Amino acid sequence: MKEATKTALRADPLFITAEADANRFNLKCMAVLCALVIVSATLNALGVFTQDMRVMLPCMVICFLAFSQPIAAVLIHDRILGKTPTVLEGPGFKYFILICVYLGIGVVCVMLTHNVVILLTVPALMAAQYRDQKRLLRWTLISTVLLVPVSVYGGYFIGALDRNMLKVVESSEATLENRLRLATPTRMTELLTHYVLPRLLCLIAVDILASGITRRTGKMLDREAALAEKVREEMERRTGMLSRVIEDLAAVIETRDEGTGDHVLRTKAYVGMIARWMQAEDGFRERLSDEYIEEICDAAPLHDVGKIAVSDLILLKPGKLTDEEFEAMKQHTVKGGKMIRNIFSNLEGDAFLKTAEEIAVSHHEKWNGRGYPYGLQGEEIPLPARIMAVADVFDALVSERVYKAPMPPEEALELIVSEGGSHFDPDIIRIVSMHREEVLDASRSPIKQNQLDADGHS
Ligand SMILES: [Fe+2]
Questions:
Q1: Ligand 1 mean position, distance from CA 303 (Å)
Q2: What is d(CA 340, CA 243) in angstroms, rounded to the nearest whole number?
Q3: 259-456 falls under which CATH superfamily?
Q4: Residue 458 per-residue DSSP state
Q5: Ligand 1 mean position, distance from CA 393 (Å)
């Protein structure tokens, strides 16, 4: 793989997750090894094992320190100090873990002398958890191979009693003097042929197997990372396209409607503010996640998209609409819903489509069931539409129209509050009343893009 791609993948969350997962797995293995060392020490203290405690104790301490260091690092860094990102995602942490493993395993090998082939395979299997890295694999192979003579000869001279090796019967005879006396060239060669070489062959086989697993895992993760990158790019492209479509549609609505300028932006900002306040309340916290609020804010500018399909004669009529004209005007809700379904069904996920459609169709419904187009009542009206209704009416009241002067915000808010339970959801009105000053401030200040971002996308 090219270096540039590798660098890009290292910054990829999937890559970090893969490394962190391997570190996490290896830490669990180390915890088990640590427990085994403690069990060995306990059995030795109880007299089940007959190891020389002068050798055993320092070995136990070194093992315990080696195995516990990475575990302690995670506990202190992540749990006690609460720092993020987790130390498990650190680029060098795997080397720290593996060095501690080699130290710990090496001491255990010397301590127990034989029956430790399985322990010698542990470092290789732990290294196999990581992605394809030639240097790491080479290092693992060399280190595990070096551990073999260290364990056999180290065990012979300072480690546990081995009756086969020492040809002695009683543990009291396994003194260092006896060991040195019996360390003839013939015995040393015997150790090489009977103990070192079989273990080496066994380990090389395990290492080759582990290397194969690592290489395959690495390639698989590389492919996954490349795929994730492609998906992310595609999502960004689609999100950008969606924003442009919404902006363009909102601009068309503005020019076709009463030319109120920033009605779309203002209502979007109000919707974001109200949704955030609702999110802080117990009754709505579960229903209004951050993602859902973002979706509602994104969909809010499309609430009157159906007006595009309403005749100019009705839409721009300065006087009062006749009953027939009003009926046609009401249709902007249903037509808006259809337009959204047609435009966005191939462009965005079902969740956005549903929210945008709900807002467009139901933002003129009333809590008491006297709204339009379907006369929905209470909680039958979708939540995003109930929020939109408050924002839409409040902004219409405080805005100037060709046929009316703007209403002072205090008066408009009073009117809105008085309609809680009849026109609007009483719970939303209660929450809006709690934030009276913020609503009035927002209505007086010019709408800014950063305010929209803060309200809708934080
Ligand atoms: Fe409308």
A1: 6
A2: 14
A3: Hypothetical protein af1432 (1.10.3210.10)
A4: -
A5: 9
